[in-house]
Write a structure and sequence with these properties.
6-stranded antiparallel β-sheet; 6 strands; globular
Length: about 140
């Protein structure tokens, strides 16, 4: 597998976060979606077609994961990420409050996934995302 530079990794991450911002600004929410660094070292979005106009998010996520893992196994993709709209516990202790967050699933190969989070909120200037963190 070719080495992936920090710049290429950041480009893919920026693309994924940019897509989330777009979806939130246009619809206020989003289905799971993916972006990949392909074998030609190009960042591109990945999706799947469902005959169901309103598929369950879990179905979308499962189909994306399958397509991405297959692409990583056969060398079509070098790195992949999936963005998922989630609610996570607020950082303050002793509260049951939950915050909206972007869950980022990072696939370096078909067996290795790292899960990171970025809390987002809407401001007067649009949606703002926190630094990435693990739970």
């Amino acid at each position: 597998m070719p080495n992936i530079s920090d710049q290429q990794y950041q480009q893919l991450l920026d693309s994924l976060i940019g897509q989330a911002k777009y979806f939130l600004e246009e619809a206020g929410e989003f289905y799971p979606y993916g972006s990949v660094l392909d074998a030609d070292m190009q960042v591109r979005p990945v999706g799947f077609y469902s005959e169901n106009e309103y598929p369950e998010s879990n179905e979308v996520l499962k189909q994306l994961e399958t397509a991405i893992k297959d692409g990583l196994k056969n060398g079509k993709y070098l790195l992949a990420m999936i963005g998922v709209d989630v609610m996570i516990p607020a950082p303050a202790r002793g509260t049951t409050e939950k915050r909206s967050a972007l869950q980022i699933r990072i696939y370096r190969d078909s067996e290795d996934v790292t899960i990171m989070y970025s809390i987002y909120e809407q401001t007067a200037d649009g949606f703002v995302f926190s630094e990435l963190f693990e739970l």
